[in-house]
Amino acid sequence: MRLFEGLVLANERAGEGLLMMRVRAPEAAREARAGQFLHVRCARPDGYDPLLRRPISIYRAADDELWLYFDVVGRGTAFLASLREGDRLDCLGPLGQPFRIPPNARNLLMVGGGIGLAPLAALADEALARELNVTILAGFRSGARALPGGFVPPAAEYVVATEDGAIGHAGYVTDLVPSYLGWADAVFACGPTRMLESLRRATAGTTKPVQVSLEERMGCAMGVCLSCVLHTDRGLKRVCRDGPVFDLAELQELQWRAA
């Protein structure tokens, strides 16, 4: 973990209301692992509004660059959307526990909802570098918000589901999981709470490992403020330090909250 200033190289549209930012940050890029995130300051150097940083998952760590995929939903992400090439980005990270690929797994199924694709793309890069097979199931509210395939590792199978039926499967991304579960040696997921609860039902009874990355509001992202604590089978856990990646089996008793 380090506090650093990254140099914005690009900030391009990646769907309706969605952006992909590339940031030059050599040391952080070398340290980053799939599933980790940055805590990003979303205010000008002379300002403090908004006061709290925002957790942003690392979409890709390549060469000297970090890629950040985000949805413009409030003041913090609106500030990020306003940044242009040459601007500086104040970051803390990489933070959190990464995904873990089981030693004997060859076929990896990844299930992402919206910007939940971010840590899965980084995991796909890692898996493909190890010559593993990757299928990414990606769910979006509409075709306009679907991530273009050019942002996805080309060696991965990329299957899209949209709730409006504009692209790919018409319906929820978790509808597709049963068709791939027999093929997969391990399952990885990130997305809204309701999607993860649906995934829990779709994978009920399987003995295959299922890891999920949780999306949660955070204050400090260092385990001090306890604003991201949740109940699990193993007691109270901090999403920022003990996660954001957890074994789904550990969360069977999680008090799932509405997204």
Please write out the topology.
Blueprint: E1 2-13, E2 18-24, H1 26-31, E3 37-40, E4 54-62, E5 65-71, H2 75-82, E6 88-95, E7 107-113, H3 117-129, E8 133-140, E9 157-162, E10 169-170, H4 177-181, E11 186-190, H5 193-202, E12 210-213, E13 229-232, E14 235-238, E15 245-247
Mean pLDDT: 93
CATH topology of the largest domain: Rossmann fold
Low-confidence stretches: none
Residue share in β-strands: 25-35%
Provide the gyration radius in Å: 17 Å
Query: What strand order characterises the main sheet?
Result: 10-9-8-7-11-12-15
- The CATH class of the largest domain is identified as Alpha Beta
Report, as a whole number of angstroms, the end-to-end distance: 29 Å
How many discrete domains?
A: 2
- Structural class by sheet pairing and helices: alpha/beta
Count of strand segments:
15
Q: Could you say which overall geometry the principal axes of the C-alpha atoms support?
A: globular
Question: CATH superfamily of the largest domain, called what?
Answer: Nucleotide-binding domain of ferredoxin-NADP reductase (FNR) module
Largest β-sheet summary: 7 strands, mixed
Helical fraction equals 10-25%
Topology as H/E string? EEHEEEHEEHEEEHEHEEEE
Specify the CATH architecture of the largest domain.
3-Layer(aba) Sandwich
Number of helices: 5
Detailed description of the structure:
With 259 residues, the protein is of the alpha/beta class. The protein has 2 domains: 2-95, Elongation Factor Tu (Ef-tu), domain 3 (Beta Barrel); 107-251, Rossmann fold (3-Layer(aba) Sandwich), CATH 3.40.50. The chain has helices at residues 26-31, 75-82, 117-129, 177-181, 193-202, and strands at 2-13, 18-24, 37-40, 54-62, 65-71, 88-95, 107-113, 133-140, 157-162, 169-170, 186-190, 210-213, 229-232, 235-238, 245-247. It has a 7-stranded mixed β-sheet, with helices on both faces. The chain has a 6-stranded antiparallel β-barrel with strand order 1-2-5-4-3-6. Strand 4 (54-62) and strand 5 form a beta hairpin.
